[in-house]
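Pipeline run #58 for the internal structure catalog. This entry was flagged by the ingest filter as a single-chain record with no existing model, so it goes straight to prediction. Upstream metadata was stripped on purpose; only the residue string is passed forward. Reviewer on rotation: M.T. Logging verbosity set to normal.
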Amino acid sequence: MSPAASPSQSSHTSDLQVEETEKTSDQAPRSWQDWWGAFARGLFHASFLTGIAAGVWQRSSLVWVLLVIYVVVVGVALNRGSTRTARLTQAFSVLVALVATAAAVVWVPLEVFSRILDADAVDPSASVPLTVLEMMSVCGLVAGGLLLGSRRRTGRALPVSGVVMGAATLVPVLLLAILVPVGGPLAHRTTSDPGAAPAIPTDPQEEVWEWSTDSGGVHRVLTGSHGPVLALSGGLVGLDGADGQELWALQVTHQETGTSGTFGQGRSAFHRQTGTDGRHRIWALDTATGELEIANAPYVAEDTELEGVSEQLFIDPERPDTLLLAGVDSPTEADQAERTRITVTDTRIGEEVWTREAEEVDGALCHFGRDPVFSDEALLVARVCAAPSAFRYGGPEGEVRIGFSELDPLTGRTLDETMWEHEERDAFSLLHRFRVSGIHTVDDNTLLAMEDEQGFVHVADVGAGQGRTVRGDFSESTENSLVQVGPEELVYEGRRPLGVSGEPGPDVVLTRVPLDGEPSMATTIEAPQDPGDDVEENQEALVTGHTGLVVWPPHRNRSGEWELHSAALDDQDARSRTLLTGTGIFTDVVMAPGALALALGNRVVGIA
């Protein structure tokens, strides 16, 4: 009878048997189980490394998910070489499959929903290709882990070619993320036929529609071609002004901070987003159909603020993928008599398309005024001309001519110019205040308004090449600002002074200033009888036709009572009346085709 084997001898014998079994297995033909195992291992490790790289690059929470899996991998690797290797490897594979599946089931939906519902909390510097790699790496971990956990072990070494094939599975995903333009909007709806544009109401009376949203508040309301354009968190929505129905919507991913506005006199809208790394992307679309004119383009011209109405932007019909931006550089030190310079920039690359400096014409130095505007296929820029010495501090006063030039947007060449004499003789003071204040289309006529902040408004009919200077009489109001420009008159908003102190009171005075030199006519719209503490003195005034409208809102960002009053401007004896009252968080109000749009928190009211 042979002696019993000691525990150490038994363990040694078992290890030898395992080693012999592995050697025998290595010599046997490999089965499909071995190929699947090799493929799964290659897919798993490639997905792990890809996910780590993408997560670290954009500081994603995915890194922590993958590190948990990595700790499990290291823990199992440290225990390899015992007789329990097969069981531990099998358990490791099952655990990996469970962890990877949990990551896919829990992390991926949370990441997607955070980008949709709380776009402001998402790092906007994260690029879409990297996000695709993140998602696909988790899916690769799930697939590789499930295959590793479910296959039957044969004990044979896995073929290297199978591992390479598994790792190579992510190559098409990498190419897709890099080459395919998947960085477009998260949601984009359009309309093929918006119908005829509704007319702007001339005497709005009552609420005719209401629109609301559950995804944040309305930050701004703008005028589009067929109705109001709403700026929301991370996107835009276009409404039909006649019935308040959505015509189109644009929701942009990876939003942190954004600015929205319109250009082309309401025919186009833009949305620009800014990342934490300072990089900007811009979208532009047609306000009638919502069709994208520019999609997810880089915006390198970072020095110009874009928000609200910005007629400094222009899309050339011959190059629809190019967004141009116009600006004027004013002198920094007036006594140095620096020359103003107008520049048009390609916003995609930040390079100048052309630049033009103020030049001397017939002995006069002609500077450019601030805030040039694009109109149709011309760039309109204000001009002020005087003797070169008149623009120096303390220089002599003399004849000053003002007007505007029509320039070719692509070359800067002068297409036409209209100038007339200004009664102001201080060219130095005028230069630093002269600017374009707005461009208006009335009965197919394009009117350009220019201001010099000394009580003068200069109105030019661009098509007719005529201009004139107007100064209003504001004996009944103070703090006046221009709110409407027409072919026959201007309308100003001001405040009625209080008693002998002359301080501006809460009552609004709308003053009509005829362009033919006739006396000004003032209409007072009285504030609510008992405004209380909830009503601020930052009321909003609008004019449509011969009707003046004023909204008295509560404090901004606070819910409270608001009132909408109106008065007929063509009847000086007419008293103002209250049209509507309500409760809400006042955001913005604008006169748009179809209705006056009043934004109140997360809803918009249409009044016609």
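catalog note: The two ends are 111 Å apart (CA to CA).
catalog note: The CA atoms of residues 398 and 425 lie 5 Å apart.
status: ready for reviewer M.T.
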